[in-house]
Amino acid sequence: MAAIGAIRKHGVLLLVIIGLALLAFILGDLSNVTRTFSSKYVMAKIDGKKMDQQYSKQYEENLALMRILQKKSTFEDNETYQIHEMTWQQMLQEKAVDKELEKLGLTYTPQMIEDFKENMLASLSTQQPNQFLAQFANALAEQYGPENAMSIISNIETLANREDAKDIYNAYQALVRFALGAEKQQHYMALAQNSIYFSTPLAKQLAKDNSIALVSLMTVNPELTAFQNLKPEVSEKEMKEFYNIHKKELFNVQSKNRDINVAVFPINPTQADLKAIEDSVRKDFTTFTQAESIAEYNTARGNGALDSTYYKESDITLNELDSLIFKVPVGSYIEPFTYENVKWYFGKVFGASNRPDSVLVATIELPFKTAQNQEAPYSKKEARLLADSLRQVIASGTSIFSLQPSYLYGREQGDTTFWLPERGTMPDLYNSLLTTPNGGIYVYKAAAGYVVFQVLDRTQLIEKRQFVIYDYDINPSEATINALRSQANEFAASVTNNEELIANAAKQGIQVVNGERVSSMTANIGQLPNCRDIVSWAFGDDVKEDAISDVFNVNKMFFAVASVAKVREQGMQKYKEVKDDIKTLLEKQNKVALVAEQLNKDLASGDMAAVAQKYNIPVSDSVTLSFAGDYYMNRGVEGKAIGQIFSLSANKPAAVSGNNVAYVVNVLDKRDGQASENLMLEKNYLQNAVLGRDRNENTLFNYLVSELNVLDNRVRFYQK
Description:
Elements: H1 2-9, H2 11-37, E1 44-46, E2 49-50, H3 52-70, H4 77-103, H5 110-123, H6 131-144, H7 146-154, H8 166-194, H9 200-209, E3 212-220, H10 236-250, E4 252-253, E5 257-266, H11 271-290, H12 294-300, H13 321-326, E6 333-339, E7 343-356, E8 358-367, H14 380-395, H15 400-403, E9 417-421, H16 427-434, E10 441-446, E11 449-458, E12 461-473, H17 478-494, H18 498-508, E13 511-519, H19 532-538, E14 552-554, E15 558-568, E16 571-572, H20 575-604, H21 608-615, E17 620-626, H22 639-645, E18 654-657, E19 662-671, H23 680-691, H24 693-706, E20 710-712, H25 714-717
Antiparallel strand pairs: 1-2, 1-20, 3-17, 3-19, 4-16, 5-13, 5-15, 6-7, 7-12, 8-9, 8-11, 10-11, 14-15, 18-19
Helix pairs in contact: 3-4, 3-8, 4-8, 4-24, 6-7, 6-8, 10-20, 23-24
């Protein structure tokens, strides 16, 4: 009752508290509703369809394929994000091509895809195998052998639910997509080309317009010192007109990106650090030479048992070390030395022997039951007794090859005879095989079974040596790292925007790396690798233009302070967002026009040779230009200038302007174009201009992708 009385006394307060709690509950629930409908929590959409699961699946498959093809288990950040970008572009192109194929009446059904897979597999036994699958088969063959590789690929669907074969199955799925995507694109291009008709009047017009001019030509760079006083002006009207004409072409951002500037503070050891490291190495070397035994010193360092393996000279990949080990007497110490300013080394050569590099053996494996393998055919005792029995039978003259078929347990008999190399084989086992004569038998007890070896042959003797090497990294001290961190923190605190970052860095001699149009799913900024943390920061919701980052430690290689110089979100950029870019572009073009104007003044008082001498620019004689030719056919002359050149009168030198450079031209001869027989050349030219594989196919597919409605929020889900 006292409690109820207390509640009555504080009724209003409790109602407020209960009301706030209820409001919090509702808002909490509302946030879940918002989460359901907000695109903020969607990783990717293409044409309104959520692609989160498909993207994750295809990324994992591509990652597995790259692991197998590149023979790597892990990747650096920049490599990982290249695979991310490859996956995304693959999905976009696949969606774009599928849409276009549907318009043309072609859809790939599940049965067609299965038939495609079967044809891929069948192609491996032909003279022209599918290149995607052939590359995959070669990679598997290197790891598992050719016969096993073919068996794996032939039975690939049986691996779908096997965890131990997950990478192989995923990699196969990825390469099927690559191959199928290539075929779809090929079919689309064939259908697209056959659906376009170039009329005879159009081809005739091209033939008529395709004049040929023989000219003397001089290309003039507007940045020459002689033109530094020419100051172009750009009006607001010009800039707005340029924006309105070119906004869809130039300012429609397909994928959000940032311009990021990074002030870099390399983490390198100082001279004092280098001296301290060298002193420590030489002190340890002295201790090493005074130790009673190498094994004792090795144990004292915490390195465990001494490596007793014998190595041939070609096994040693470190330049300089191979000659040191093989050109000194056994028992010699290897004095401390540095390698590429990365490590210090010292050591000792303690053994030498002439030994075969590998031994040819035939084997019978007798697996016994263990906690991990209850399916084995024998108990440990049964396996030991059987191994002893087989040793005696083979020693008495029975061929090991006649016995092997009874003990294969699912293996192929060809897998039972092989060359066993010293490098990579346990030293005790290899040494035991060396002491076994050719034809002799040796039984080895492994962790999960017995192996009966018969030694068949061995390679020629080669000099090998035993040695021990100790290495020391050349790293900066903690004091140096802390000093650099403090310098970077002070710098970050001293700047408030991008302009200050660049200016202050220049004053202090700090390197700034510029990254232009950095996409959200990349790991590099300019030439700086593995900058994923910086990129993720730059695409954060609260990070705006002119933002300055905290200090980043990039892979313990350098400290970095970053600024966001430009933010470009997906969609059409507004005029005010690109005004400065337009001004820079038009100033450049107007500068070229001013240079052409100056050159025409020079020509009015002198000939082309005098102008060339004045500006120290060579003249190219007898250059053939084609009115309808492209940039490459026309010796790199820009299209804007080509139109002006063909309007010039013969033997009247003049200067014309392109977008980037000016040209001084004298037309020596000009003749009208001549139509080819049946207008074949003209129609081929038009075909290539519209759908030419070499230069326009990527442009076409990029256009198709640009027409997709795309939401790319991957940066939220793959920040690191």
